[in-house]
């Protein structure tokens, strides 16, 4: 328990961090500079402080930078001092604010998502001040800030940023007009954002955006013209807005109004859009993740990265519009080198295929297809690049066999867009598409188009339309050969589909998928398959020569030695491979090791040790000896060396870099490291070393890395997943207990035996899978899981000693037809509990339905075991809810029945309970508290409720009759008197006194009880007379 305080560290004031996060270097430096400024100015007047700062910056460049960055930090963290600090900054700065502009750009590109709320607000304020001051270079900062406004995101923070940046541009319009690139970039950005801001609550913001764009387009059209053809695409999306409609009319019919140099819309459509504009609609984080996938992820291993991206950016309805931005970016910006094209890196067409198949909106799907084909429409081989049109043809080609519906949809779109895009320019569009297809064949992206255009899998109407539109490309080649790709593309198809059973787009539930036919293509080149046969390619050797050539001679010899020992395929050679691996590690740890060859070395090692990453890791029989044997593989030598080093050792970071490179090529490295840290005696107590590994990877985030590794482990080896689970939960509680992500992975694959083992771990104190502050949210998340997953989750929860009251509010979320698993588990657990006031309240708050027996069944059980306690709690709820409507009679119709328990609900449940107990000997409804509460309610409720629950209230009347029997002798003589009121008065007073004393514990009802009882008792008295 002693290491816990060591984890705690003071929370910085700039960036959001968790106790597990390492201290950010940038934040540390900025805080240090702020400390320098505060040390120089503490206790001084403003004039003296300014003199002290000026004197310090004169000492040299380092002091100048420290003071400027210190004042910059204080502006971000101290809003009350921001104005004074900015003034001091303008006075002491000696480089035209260059050091500040550079740092703002760095924060925006690298740290903006991690900024706390106050620094984020202050950063935008500082940019506004820089713009006001007309600082040279501020336009670049504003363009970086524009990039941070995410498309397809209408969260509060994103809307706040969009509105504030727009306000800066509107307030400083004269300044904006001086920068042509800023005009074009801001118009491109806000034209795109207008599409997202359609909901009624966002219309004021949308109108400001429309007014700004119209103003810029009409006043500075030639500056906007540099955007190119994508300006037309964005204008098409907003054409229905009245102001935009007027602009469109001028654009088409009176272009000279916009600018004398503008000849018409064709001038725009033939101009290729610069990469700068396509890239500006992706946030730096999105861009980093996409570039990582297209440059570092191996084809066939992309699923977990795509899943992460989907969860992060494409999970909401409004985020569907982002798909167009992503596709335009991939087509126009991501142009891989020949080296990448000839490698096993994830190709662009596979990502685009994934984006198309996971699209859930018809409108977004149409726009996504237009984004994919947009460069085809006016393609000019002399100006445009083959890389812009290649993804579309490859998506269609590769989808034909496993997903013919995707190919058919895209081909149909390509045919129909020609006459419908803009009828007056139909001939130009037709020529553009024709140029694209011709250029594709010239560059041998596809050798011939007939197998694609005249494929039997396409329906007759589509094939007929293709022959009509493109007769030149539909005639088959003279010899019947298989469609060939250019060398680079064919390698994209055939390389390294080793271990994955997932579809090419890694979306096995895509709506377009259909049954694949198992065809034996004898004598033909192996075709690309979305679900490749694993065994056919498992032992295919991969040529590592290109990587070997990048190593120095000594390292190259060692790797080749390891390669020879691997080729022997003998079990005894594992020891020889371990010796070679240790020698390689020793070479890496030498001071003169060239880290530039780390990537090539990792590629070689990934190939050499691929067999060690296959098969079961965990021994069949778990003993100390078998565990040690299982961690004696060559790759474990890197882990062992890492474990024995101190973190401040220079070799420690070098080995982490090696593992990070290896991780990109072999994702199983992550959970193999976790297994080593758990199973090896040498790594005892070093599990937190994994955190350093996670931060060294390209992901750079412990939670994301851990979840991806556990997902990979789940897919490969469920036994290993269960073995690792106790350690993962105990060592990384903040990453595992705050959400149900890991829990869902576990319960989705375990069997009943493994469930029982995990429950035993919980009971013995070795495993904690829930904690009080997050268990309710996790159980609510689990309501959407499969039946066995939910039952397993509840079993694991019940194995913990968490009070049931912690999660009883979940009852508000449970519907009897949709959540039977949770209801049945709760029912069995509630029957073991003594009812508390909160439990009774939540049980009674369930809506009444004839088929939902949950409330009646648990109440009936409690009446037989805890009738006194239940009676008091129901009495309290009846009286409490009876008072509320009387106080708020006028608001009753508008009150939310879902948000609070109502009197009518309680009475309905009690009536159902009364019917359930009618044939039993249970005496629950003879209890004084229940009968008193019913009297209390009857006295004040309306006639409709008295009639509806007459049987229930009759129990209270019988009780009142029995209570009034003793004083009857005092009423006999006056009762026969014509003046009945005087005769009734004495017993009424006596009854008031009795009722008041019996209900003395109900403070809120005591003052009004006599009034109600008087009404009730007079009625009962007259009946008895």
From TrEMBL:
Keyword Nucleus attached: yes
Primary residence: cytoplasm
InterPro entries membership: HEAT_Ints3_C, INTS3, INTS3_N
Keyword Transport recorded: no
Keywords carried by this UniProt record: Cytoplasm, Nucleus
Superkingdom, natural source: Eukaryota
Segments forming domain Ints3-like C-terminal: 572-956
Coiled coil: none
Residues annotated as domain Integrator complex subunit 3 N-terminal: 62-468
A GO CC annotation given for this chain: cytoplasm
Chain segments carrying region Disordered: 959-1025
Record field: compositional bias (Acidic residues): 990-1004
One Pfam family, short name: Ints3_N
Subcellular location: Cytoplasm; Nucleus
Family, as annotated: Belongs to the Integrator subunit 3 family.
This protein's name: Integrator complex subunit 3
Organism: Salarias fasciatus (Jewelled blenny)
């Amino acid at each position: 328990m002693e290491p816990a305080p060591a984890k705690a560290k003071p929370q910085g004031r700039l960036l959001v961090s968790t106790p597990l996060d390492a201290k950010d270097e940038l934040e540390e430096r900025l805080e240090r500079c702020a400390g320098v400024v505060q040390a120089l100015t503490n206790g001084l007047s403003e004039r003296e402080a300014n003199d002290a700062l000026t004197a310090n910056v004169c000492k040299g460049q380092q002091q100048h930078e420290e003071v400027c960055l210190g004042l910059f930090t204080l502006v971000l963290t101290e809003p009350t001092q921001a104005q004074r600090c900015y003034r001091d900054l303008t006075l002491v700065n000696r480089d035209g604010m260059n050091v500040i502009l550079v740092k703002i750009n760095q924060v925006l590109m690298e740290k903006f998502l991690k900024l706390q709320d106050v620094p984020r607000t202050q950063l935008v304020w500082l940019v506004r001040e820089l713009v006001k001051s007309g600082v040279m270079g501020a336009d670049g900062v504003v363009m970086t800030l524009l990039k941070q406004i995410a498309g397809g995101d209408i969260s509060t923070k994103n809307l706040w940023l969009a509105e504030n940046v727009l306000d800066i541009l509107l307030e400083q319009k004269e300044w904006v007009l001086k920068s042509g690139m800023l005009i074009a970039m801001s118009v491109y950005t806000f034209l795109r954002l207008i599409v997202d801001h359609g909901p009624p609550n966002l219309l004021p913001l949308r109108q400001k955006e429309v007014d700004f764009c119209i103003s810029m387009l009409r006043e500075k059209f030639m500056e906007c013209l540099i955007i190119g053809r994508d300006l037309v695409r964005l204008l098409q999306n907003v054409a229905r807005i009245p102001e935009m409609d007027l602009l469109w009319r001028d654009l088409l019919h009176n272009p000279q109004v916009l600018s004398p140099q503008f000849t018409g819309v064709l001038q725009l459509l033939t101009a290729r859009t610069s990469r700068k504009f396509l890239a500006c609609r992706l946030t730096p984080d999105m861009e980093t993740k996409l570039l990582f996938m297209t440059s570092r992820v191996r084809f066939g291993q992309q699923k977990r990265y795509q899943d992460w991206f989907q969860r992060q950016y494409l999970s909401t309805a409004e985020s569907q519009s982002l798909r167009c931005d992503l596709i335009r970016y991939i087509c126009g910006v991501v142009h891989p080198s020949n080296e990448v094209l000839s490698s096993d890196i994830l190709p662009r067409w596979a990502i685009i295929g994934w984006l198309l198949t996971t699209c859930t909106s018809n409108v977004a799907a149409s726009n996504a297809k237009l984004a994919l084909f947009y460069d085809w429409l006016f393609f000019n081989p002399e100006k445009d690049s083959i890389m812009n049109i290649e993804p579309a043809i490859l998506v269609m080609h590769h989808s034909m066999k496993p997903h013919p519906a995707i190919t058919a949809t895209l081909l149909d779109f390509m045919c129909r867009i020609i006459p419908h895009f803009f009828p007056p320019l139909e001939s130009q569009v037709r020529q553009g598409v024709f140029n694209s297809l011709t250029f594709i064949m010239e560059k041998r992206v596809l050798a011939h188009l007939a197998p694609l255009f005249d494929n039997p899998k396409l329906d007759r109407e589509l094939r007929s339309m293709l022959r009509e539109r493109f007769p030149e490309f539909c005639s088959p080649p003279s010899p019947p050969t298989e469609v060939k790709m250019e060398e680079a593309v064919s390698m994209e198809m055939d390389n390294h589909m080793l271990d994955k059973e997932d579809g090419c787009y890694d979306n096995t539930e895509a709506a377009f998928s259909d049954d694949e036919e198992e065809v034996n293509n004898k004598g033909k080149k192996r075709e690309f398959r979305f679900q490749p046969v694993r065994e056919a390619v498992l032992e295919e050797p991969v040529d590592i020569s290109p990587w070997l050539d990048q190593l120095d001679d000594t390292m190259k010899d060692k790797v080749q030695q390891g390669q020879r020992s691997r080729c022997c395929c003998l079990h005894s050679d594992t020891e020889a491979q371990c010796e070679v691996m240790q020698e390689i590690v020793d070479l890496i740890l030498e001071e003169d090791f060239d880290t530039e060859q780390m990537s090539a070395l990792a590629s070689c090692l990934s190939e050499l040790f691929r067999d060690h990453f296959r098969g079961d890791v965990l021994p069949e029989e778990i003993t100390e000896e078998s565990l040690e044997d299982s961690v004696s593989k060559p790759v474990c030598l890197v882990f062992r060396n890492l474990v024995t080093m101190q973190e401040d050792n220079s070799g420690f970071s070098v080995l982490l870099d090696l593992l990070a490179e290896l991780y990109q090529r072999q994702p199983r490295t992550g959970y193999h490291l976790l297994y080593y840290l758990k199973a090896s005696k040498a790594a005892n107590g070093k599990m937190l070393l994994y955190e350093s590994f996670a931060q060294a990877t390209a992901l750079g985030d412990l939670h994301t890395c851990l979840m991806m590794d556990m997902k990979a482990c789940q897919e490969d080896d469920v036994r290993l997943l269960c073995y690792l689970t106790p350690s993962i939960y105990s060592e990384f509680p903040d990453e595992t207990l705050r959400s149900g992500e890991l829990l869902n992975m576990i319960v989705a694959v375990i069997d009943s035996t493994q469930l029982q083992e995990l429950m035993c771990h919980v009971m013995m104190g070795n495993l904690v899978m829930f904690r009080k502050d997050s268990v309710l949210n996790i159980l609510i998340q689990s309501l959407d899981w499969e039946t066995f997953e939910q039952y397993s989750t509840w079993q694991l929860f019940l194995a913990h000693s968490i009070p049931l009251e912690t999660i009883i509010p979940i009852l508000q979320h449970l519907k009897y037809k949709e959540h039977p698993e949770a209801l049945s588990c709760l029912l069995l657990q509630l029957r073991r509990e003594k009812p508390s006031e909160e439990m009774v309240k939540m049980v009674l708050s369930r809506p009444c339905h004839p088929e939902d027996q949950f409330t009646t069944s648990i109440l009936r059980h409690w009446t037989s075991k805890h009738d006194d306690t239940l009676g008091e709690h129901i009495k309290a709820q009846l009286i409490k809810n009876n008072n509320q409507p009387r106080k708020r009679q006028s608001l009753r119709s508008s009150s939310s029945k879902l948000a609070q328990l109502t009197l009518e609900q309680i009475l309905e449940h009690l009536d159902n309970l009364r019917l359930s107990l009618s044939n039993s000997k249970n005496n629950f409804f003879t209890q004084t508290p229940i009968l008193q509460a019913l009297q209390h309610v009857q006295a004040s409720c309306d006639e409709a409720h008295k009639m509806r629950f007459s049987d229930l209230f009759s129990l209270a009347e019988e009780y009142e009759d029995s209570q009034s029997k003793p004083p009857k002798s005092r009423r006999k003589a006056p009762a026969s008197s014509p003046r009945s009121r005087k005769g009734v008065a004495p017993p009424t007073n006596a009854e008031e006194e009795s009722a008041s004393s019996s209900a003395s514990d109900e403070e809120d009802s005591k003052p009004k009880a006599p009034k109600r009882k008087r009404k009730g008792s007079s009625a009962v008295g007259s009946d008895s007379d």
